[in-house]
Amino acid sequence: MSVELFYAVLFVVAFFYAAVGHGGASGYLALMALYGVAPEEMKPTALVLNLFVSLTSFIQYYRGGYFLRKLFIPIAAASIPLAFIGGMITVEENIYKRILGVLLLFPVIRFFFFKNTEDHELKEQNVAVAVITGGIVGLLSGMIGIGGGIILSPILLLLKWTNQKQTAAISAAFIFVNSLSGLGGMLTQGIKFTDNMVMYVIVAFTGGLLGAYLGSKKFNQNVLKYVLATVLLMASYKLLLTKA
Asked: Which of 241, 227, 238, 239 is nearest to 107 (CA)?
């Protein structure tokens, strides 16, 4: 993959993820893995990109009135400390890629098979379940170097606690705080960024800014979901079924 193609795909990944309320770390990780970036550089790099993209996405969905603070607080309260702990854990390269490949299937399943929950179908949240869910997702997020939105989103929809745009708003905020916490955990072990970090941020932030605006206001969410799910399915296949 040429450098030019890498940056073009990075822009597209940030665009589509932000459009559906995600930070994009799982996509960035898959792209960097295919491009040959070292795993010790992949995780912190993906989390930094997450911070920029998820924040722009959250702002757009928050302005639209879709953020549910009451649901977010118990989930985030459990996830933040465990994401920090997860960030301190190092996973062997081949195992890391396999875990990432499996996690990429979460958004694929969500986007292909989960229909949007209508407002009249929404159910009251269970605080205990919210706390447990947040803790588990937070730990996995820190270990792998993702914000956790790809895991949290289908759970929220399955439990019928949120509709699609409410899910996007909560996921974006969740991704931001977990990415920050996971980076904190990694700092205790030492962080190594790719030499092209500044350019990565510029490209991803630009794609995320445009995607968040158009996704929250203009685009057909179903079309975006199917396109993104197809791309992630191909990346998952590559990570799971090809040798490192």
From this structure: 227
